[in-house]
Design brief:
2 copies of one chain form a homodimer. By secondary structure, the first copy, chain A, is α/β, with parallel strands linked by helices. Chain A contains 12 helices and 11 strands. In chain A, strands 7-8-6-9-10-11 form a 6-stranded parallel β-sheet, sandwiched between helices. In chain A, helix 9 links the parallel strand 9 and strand 10. At the A-B interface, helix 7, helix 8 and helix 9 of A face helix 7, helix 8 and helix 9 of B. Chains A, B: This is EBNA-1 nuclear protein. Chains A, B: Pfam families: DUF1611 (PF07755), DUF1611_N (PF17396).
């Protein structure tokens, strides 16, 4: 587990896209964040108290989250200098950059000197096992997508919030770097050795006997020729009882691949169910999550309604409109047939 | 490239299964093998001249192939001592064990001292890229399977032999450790990072303009819940024009998983075609390869005939009966429509 509370690093950038990871943590785990760090000319804010490292420690922070993207994912001199100062102030450092903290001797020395931890969230655990596909206790939901970067993490987190609000025990299980920083643990699935993809998910979401749900963050897409292997192993390891399909209605082609079309929603649902049935023949789709941020509000609501009609599934933009419609369907499909077992209340 | 000719190591074992890798090399690349090494109480032979390391070097050997399985895949004292002696005699060492040659200081020192190479065929190249799914020139055939260990490598090699005999340019492309030792190069796909599965195959089988075929060794099975992610990425990276499905007719359940049934051949063909179509919509099945080694000869031939009737595909045991029936189908589907371009003769 990465230690909370967090202190979020924004650095000196003025590019809002480059602080995506810090923003994700602030949005979905505000209770874990005591403040933010930026330095001139950086003028970005996540609305948290701005402080220095010593003030953050005084405010209770345990870990500096380097939730910024740098050119090529490298650790530049400014980032290293700030991280070293944070270690000297008494913070652990967590980062999801391609360049690893542990490969920077200055940081390794500063961590040792201060008895602090360096956490590279792109490093998978070294004790992963091959999956076995054996049915295990507990309920699982997996978000899947027509493409990469269509809102699977956000949808999963919105579902966690909506299900908890309705009394479910429901826990987000992270498979990507931002998700891992939000959940404080998880599996960086894209960095796992190919033989262990499904096994890593079996370990991430082991048997569960409290009547609750694991909500597993999806990755990639069965229709993305670069990453469908990851998505396949994830489906098999998750053995989901329910899937939610995530879709970006304005995406013109598969991410990074102008020569690949985005699949039809119905085809994507059918393909995901077919793959999922290998380890859970009872899997059902319980909703469609659209990222409508690029659409006017009335058009967004209209599109959700039409998509629901076309697919027979509840459809919502979970970030803009909440995930309640999907939780209603989960209620119908699971809770009503298992009274008292799926709810904690 | 691993340097040939090879000298094959059998060690001191009396267990024929444990020399599977050395046997595979001797079976499929006899022209690359100058001799074999065994020591008491080992009484196994691959029918090659038995010699010591100095004699092997004198006979032209460049590389000692440690094609043996040891308990847990570790490098035991005897193996290390023999490998060191082989390095001192002037041989490179190639191995596909879980324990890496490069992690044994004595071997690293001996290799440096003698200017020789240590080749761990389970180590993927460090410069792998993410796949892009873009159509590339050349013809490709991929062997797929209803399960793991049903003869995909053997089938691919038998196809290479049969196609070459008929004048095709056809080259085996290896994705597993024994295959890599046979081909002298390749990608150990199960050890590749998840994000690079399809990209690794795109690099293994780049565009080809000589009218010839790449015959790509399959791995795993879409129906094996431990490894289907690897098989999916392999299908997408290979973008095969043709697939051959391999099957073990006496397999009672999925390998290592008594709780998983082997799929019906027809279902496995359909699922593989569906996944393959993402990167090659024109993919066709050209044959079924059965491993009939556990059946009486008449029963084997009868089963092949019945399987051909049921699937509408040529069916053979390529190791026992040759792969000509499948090459006939390749002729029909490809060569006749592309006169002069698919044959080297």
């Amino acid at each position: 587990m990465i230690r909370a509370p967090y202190f979020l690093y924004l650095g000196s950038t003025a590019d809002p896209l480059s602080i995506k990871t810090s923003r994700g943590v602030a949005m979905f785990r505000p209770e874990d964040c005591v403040g933010e760090f930026s330095r001139p000319p950086g003028n970005l804010t996540l609305g948290l108290p701005r402080m220095d490292f010593a003030e953050a420690v005084a405010a209770g922070a345990k870990t500096l989250v380097l939730g910024v993207a740098s050119a090529g994912g490298a650790l530049n001199e400014e980032l290293v200098r700030d991280a070293e100062a944070a270690l000297d102030a008494g913070l652990d450092i967590a980062a999801g950059l391609h360049g690893r903290l542990r490969d920077v001797p200055r940081l390794v020395e500063a961590a040792e000197r201060n008895g602090r931890a360096l956490i590279d969230v792109r490093d998978p655990a070294s004790d992963l096992k091959v999956g076995n596909g054996r049915a295990r206790a507990g309920k699982r939901l997996l978000t899947v997508g027509t493409d990469c970067s269509v809102g699977k993490m956000v949808t999963t987190l919105c579902l966690e919030k909506a299900m908890r609000a309705r009394g479910y025990r429901a826990d987000f299980r992270a498979t990507g770097q931002t998700g891992i920083l939000i959940a404080r643990s998880g599996v960086p699935l894209d960095a796992v050795i190919a033989d262990f993809i499904s096994g890593a998910i079996e370990q991430l979401s082991p048997e569960r006997h409290d009547g609750g749900w694991d909500l597993i963050e999806g990755q990639g897409s069965l229709f993305h020729p670069s990453f469908a292997g990851v998505s396949t192993g994830l489906l098999h390891g998750a053995q989901p009882d329910a899937i939610v399909i995530c879709h970006d209605p304005v995406r013109e082609h598969m991410r990074g691949l102008p020569h690949f079309a985005v699949p039809a929603l119905e085809d994507a649902i059918a393909a995901n169910l077919q793959v999922a049935r290998l380890t859970n023949p009872a899997v059902v789709p319980v909703g469609v999550a659209l990222n409508t941020s690029a659409l006017p509000a009335d058009e967004a609501r209209d599109l959700c309604a039409r998509t629901a009609d076309a697919t027979g599934l509840p459809c919502t933009d979970p970030y803009a409109h909440g995930a309640d419609l999907i939780v209603d369907r989960i209620d119908e499909c699971f809770a009503s047939s298992l009274p008292g077992t799926s709810r904690s209340a």
